[in-house]
Specification:
single chain, mainly beta, 5-stranded antiparallel sheet, 1 helix, elongated
């Protein structure tokens, strides 16, 4: 996945403006995988659902899953020890 990728729902035609955009991507050593931040239309932003991120400049398409914005320490245990 790349920053600037256009987001679509599975089954959508991968064309046009899509339903949102990936704003940034980085590797999380804590999670052992890449995570991305995105702006996504409200009707498509359901936690746990799958989306398609298309990067037309390189003809790349990847599937991703929408997660909670608080994915590392949801109970705040690390902060409050």
């Amino acid at each position: 996945m790349r920053g600037g990728a256009i987001l679509f729902l599975p089954g959508d035609a991968v064309a046009g403006h899509g339903r949102g955009r990936v704003t940034s991507v980085t590797f999380s050593p804590e999670l052992g995988r890449y995570v991305g931040l995105a702006l996504l239309a409200g009707d498509a932003a359901t936690e746990g659902s799958e989306i398609v991120a298309a990067y037309p400049m390189r003809a790349e398409t990847v599937r991703a899953r929408i997660g909670s914005p608080v994915f590392l320490d949801p109970k705040g245990e690390r902060l409050h020890g």
